[in-house]
Every structure is written in C-alpha cells, then in structure tokens.
Amino acid sequence: MKILSSEQIYEADKFTIKKQGITSDALMERAALKIFEWLHGRLQGAQVKIHVFCGIGNNGGDGMVLSRHLFEHGYNFQTYVVDFSEKRSKDFLLNLERLKDRKIWPSFLEAKSQLPQIGMDDIVVDAIFGIGLNRQPDKWVANLIKHINTSPAFVISVDVPSGLPSQKVSWKFTSVIKANHVLSFQVPKLVFLLPETGKYLDTWEILNIDLDSDFISGLESNYFLTQRSNLVSIYKPRTKFSHKGTYGHAVIIGGSHGKIGAVQLAGRACLRSGSGLVSMFVPGCGYNALQSSFPEAMILTDTAMDHITEIEIPFTASAIGIGMGLGTFKKTVVAFGEFLQKAKQPLVIDADGINILAKHQEMLKQLPENSILTPHPKELERLIGSWDDDFDKLDKANAFSMKHGVILVLKGANSLIVDGEKGYFNTSGNPGLATAGSGDVLTGIITGFLSQGYNSLEASIFGVYLHGLAADIKASEIGFEALIASDIIENLGKAFVELLRPKPPQNKKET
Ligand SMILES: NC(=O)C1=CN([C@@H]2O[C@H](COP(=O)(O)OP(=O)(O)OC[C@H]3O[C@@H](n4cnc5c(N)ncnc54)[C@H](O)[C@@H]3O)[C@@H](O)[C@H]2O)[C@@H](O)CC1
Ligand SMILES: Nc1ncnc2c1ncn2[C@@H]1O[C@H](COP(=O)(O)OP(=O)(O)O)[C@@H](O)[C@H]1O
Ligand SMILES: [K+]
C-alpha cells in the first residue's frame, strides 16, 4: 500500500470530487460517517460521555459532522470549537450551521476559556488539526492539548493526532495529542511509522473513503506499507518434483568463543524458512555444540578455535549470511575483508559484519551488488553517522543504499527495508521481539529466502514480515515478555500457514 504526502492526498481529494461528481462537503460527510460508524459499532448507543474537540479547518469539519450523527443517534456528547483562527473552512462552517439548525450549540474555546473536565470513563474525539497543520499551535491550544493528554479518557484522533506534522518541519513539535487510536483516512501516514513521531499514537487504522483508486495508483511514492497480499504475490510455491538441491545450499558464517548460539539461531531459522541445505562456518570451538544441537546442518570449521581467521567455503553457496557473533578481532577483520573480495553473489550481513564495515568503509566497495545489511539503530548509526531526526535518517539511509547498491533493513518496530530511494515498512511484529538473538533469527530467515531463489528485495520484505508474524503468533499465546528468539524459529511454520491461508476476496483494489 502506498504512503502518500499531504499534497498528494489533497490532489486525490480534488480528483475524486471531480470524477465522482460530488461536492467537497459530500466527501467530508462520507469520511466523518466512517468515523461515526466505527464508534457506533463499538458503543452501540452506550451513554458514555463523548467530548468532540473540533478545529476550524476540515479536520474540525469532520468533528462537526460526527457530532451531528452522534446527536441523531442519541449519544451523550459535547462538541467544542477550538477557535484558534478566523479562517474557517467552507465545509466546517456549513456543518457548524447544520448543527445549529438542530439546536446544538458547541462550546467555543478561546485563550481565556476554562477547560472542560474530562472524566475517566469518557471518550475524547480529537478533530483539532489534521494534515493541514502548518505551524506550531498557539500557547493556549498547546495547553488544551496538554489538558487532553493528562486526562484519563480514551483519545481517538481523526486522521492524525492533532499537532503532529505530516512531514519534516522547522519547528519543534512538542504539543501533540497522544492518541490511543487513530482513525485515518484512505492511506497510512509516514509519521505513524517512524519512532520519533509514531510514539504519539498507540494504534491506528485506515478508513476507506473511496478516493479514486486509479488516480492513487498513478501517483509516485517512495514509501510503501507491506501487506499480506504483497507477500502472497511474492511467494514461490514448492513444486512437486523438487528436491533439496532446488532450494539451495545456504551458508551461515559467524560465531566466536561464547557466541556460537547466534550462528545456531541463524542456521536453524535459515533451514526453517525453506533452504534445502544449510552449512555453518564457525571457529573450532563451535563444532561440538553445533553437531550435537543442530543435526540437520553441516559444520565447517576455521583452523582457529576461538574466532574466525580465514573463511574457506569449498563449494558455491547459493546464499551466505555472515556476521552474527563474529567479533571484530584483528584476524577476523582481515578474513572478512578477504572474503568480501572473493564474494560474487549478494550477501546478508548482520551484527559484527556491519560493525566491521562501519569501521572499514573502504570495504563497502567490495560488497556484491544487492547485498542486504540488517542494522539495528546503533549499528545503523555506526554505518551512516548520526541523524537530526527520523526524516533525516530516511534521507541518509536512502543515500547510503543508492551509493553502495545495497539493501538496508532498518530493524525496530515497523522495520523499514530501504532499496535505493524506495522504502517498504513492515507491519508484523511486536515488542516481544526486543529480545536477545531475534536479529540473528532474521538474518537466517532472509538468507534462507535468498537461497531459494528470491531476489534480495523479495527476500528482505518476505523475511522481515514472516519473522514478525511468527512472533505475533507466539505472543498471542504467551505474551511479549516470555517470547525468546527460538520461539520465532519454532513458529515460522505456523506463520507460513497463516500467510498462505486463502482469505475471502476483497472487493476493493489495493493502491
Ligand atoms: N481525503 C481526505 O483525507 C479527507 C480529509 N478530510 C479532513 O480534512 C483534513 C485537512 O483539512 P484542512 O486542510 O482544512 O486542515 P486542518 O483542519 O488540518 O487544518 C486546520 C486549518 O488551520 C490552519 N492551521 C494549521 N496549523 C495551524 C496552527 N498551528 N494554528 C492555527 N491554525 C493552523 C490551516 O491553515 C488550516 O486552515 C484532514 O486531516 C481530514 O481530517 C475530510 O474532511 C475529507 C476527506
Ligand atoms: N519493539 C519492537 N517491535 C517490533 N519489532 C522489534 C521491536 N524491537 C525489536 N524488534 C525486532 O527484533 C529484531 C532485533 O534485532 P537485533 O537488535 O539485531 O537483535 P539481536 O542482536 O539480539 O539478534 C529485529 O528484527 C527488530 O525489528
Ligand atoms: K486530528
């Protein structure tokens, strides 16, 4: 699914209005009705107090329309106009009049107004600012935002949490509604997915307001959200007369004294993701442990016991994952550099492999094209330098990917796969993944997909999604805290089954 800028959303609005021969007011009605239906479906007429805070633009207009429907269905609500500007939008005014026609008088809040009391069991609907926010809210509006944030009520934001800018801005945004849930129109917003801006909301969902799908399909976008349907179309089914050679012989290289577990996790994950054969290349100290704990794998060893000093693979591997538990010993760094010079096919590089590259940036030139680097935030910083904010981080990651011809998997909540100027956000996964070794498992999975003939981008997108889905399946049984890296491996099978389970056809084309 495409992620669009605010300008593109306004263009799609305009186009839809023209193409469908409707008024902008009708589109607002459609959007706000979706919000009402969402609420009504859950509340079923319950008399909980609903506070609807409306700005004076179209986001506020949505709040006005919502208020009208709340009134018509007998809800217990109070509407407030956060009267921060004289420049009210046409459709806001129209819907304010419609409220007044029904003898509903919103309470007008100004700088000196007393702020309303909000109770523990109340619901706040935040329709103050939408994607039109273009400067810092005035001090008194900031106070109101603070008042809502410190209230114990459940806060639902319309389209975006008010005060959260949709793109990079020159001012510091500190006055932002902390939304429990965001009901956003038509497309996900980039700011929901980045850590510094995404922290203002717990959860979000998209309400389809039928903007023209062909128009949206034609819009250029650099960022996308991976959905189940994208993966189903990437998936390569196994064929009847296939054999283990069909699915490749992957090699996992890494480990050092005390860190053989990292390689074991990656190797098992690689095999569980479907690689036909898996060999491990480890220092001598890993031999016994791996032979006894991982009978399906073949083990190759370095001449040194404690860490890797020379990498020799006596066959052509179909995919190689390297770096987990490797260490950055002098001889290992030399061996890694020499290995890169010989490497021909794309590699998956993680952990100390990335740390070595960060310290010896001349080695980046040796990377086979379309290699995949899987940094966590600290490793990313070592690799590309620090960033001012998340938008700057994206720019720097895109530039790095383009310059070196590699794919970056920026790990974290909503992991982002960066391929040149494009980026693909992941939607699976949970905080249970914040546990030792989960990154090693991911490297193994991506290597497993490369080994089976998926290209680097497909292997990264598929691998990251499946990794998160396996963790989601296990977390639904045992919660976040108890989840450990081995659980992800053990649930990869269930994740495949869940992903490929036929779903009822959707009648809407995805954009
Ligand atoms: N396709 C869609 O997504 C649709 C969007 N609609 C709604 O329209 C919203 C966008 O509406 P608008 O463009 O009117 O913008 P907003 O309602 O987000 O912005 C409020 C207005 O206040 C002004 N303003 C911005 N920042 C301010 C600040 N800090 N202090 C004071 N004034 C400020 C702006 O100039 C703008 O006129 C969306 O977020 C959504 O809620 C729906 O009504 C219809 C369909
Ligand atoms: N809060 C979170 N939500 C979703 N995924 C997470 C979260 N925290 C970590 N992850 C995922 O867990 C993995 C952690 O990788 P990494 O930090 O390299 O771990 P390790 O070095 O222990 O193997 C990544 O795939 C990352 O995306
Ligand atoms: K809002």
UniProtKB/TrEMBL annotation:
InterPro entries: Carbohydrate_kinase_pred_CS, CARKD, Nnr, Ribokinase-like, YjeF_N_dom, YjeF_N_dom_sf. Its EC number is 4.2.1.136, 5.1.99.6. The keyword Lyase applies. AMP binds at residues 411-415, 439. Binds 1 potassium ion per subunit. K(+) binds at residues 59, 126, 162. Residues 227-499 form the YjeF C-terminal domain. GO terms for molecular function: ADP-dependent NAD(P)H-hydrate dehydratase activity; ATP binding; metal ion binding; NAD(P)HX epimerase activity. One of its GO terms (biological process) is nicotinamide nucleotide metabolic process. Its cofactor is Mg(2+); K(+). Keywords: ATP-binding, Isomerase, Lyase, Metal-binding, Multifunctional enzyme, NAD, NADP, Nucleotide-binding, Potassium. (6S)-NADPHX binds at residues 58-62, 130-136, 159, 262, 325, 376, 440. Residues 9-217 form the YjeF N-terminal domain. It catalyses: (6S)-NADHX + ADP = AMP + phosphate + NADH + H(+); (6R)-NADPHX = (6S)-NADPHX; (6S)-NADPHX + ADP = AMP + phosphate + NADPH + H(+); (6R)-NADHX = (6S)-NADHX. In the N-terminal section; belongs to the NnrE/AIBP family. Belongs to the NnrD/CARKD family. PANTHER family: ATP-DEPENDENT (S)-NAD(P)H-HYDRATE DEHYDRATASE (PTHR12592:SF0), ATP-DEPENDENT (S)-NAD(P)H-HYDRATE DEHYDRATASE FAMILY MEMBER (PTHR12592). Catalyzes the dehydration of the S-form of NAD(P)HX at the expense of ADP, which is converted to AMP. Together with NAD(P)HX epimerase, which catalyzes the epimerization of the S- and R-forms, the enzyme allows the repair of both epimers of NAD(P)HX, a damaged form of NAD(P)H that is a result of enzymatic or heat-dependent hydration. Catalyzes the epimerization of the S- and R-forms of NAD(P)HX, a damaged form of NAD(P)H that is a result of enzymatic or heat-dependent hydration. This is a prerequisite for the S-specific NAD(P)H-hydrate dehydratase to allow the repair of both epimers of NAD(P)HX. This is Bifunctional NAD(P)H-hydrate repair enzyme. It comes from Flagellimonas allohymeniacidonis. The lineage of its organism: Bacteria, Pseudomonadati, Bacteroidota, Flavobacteriia, Flavobacteriales.
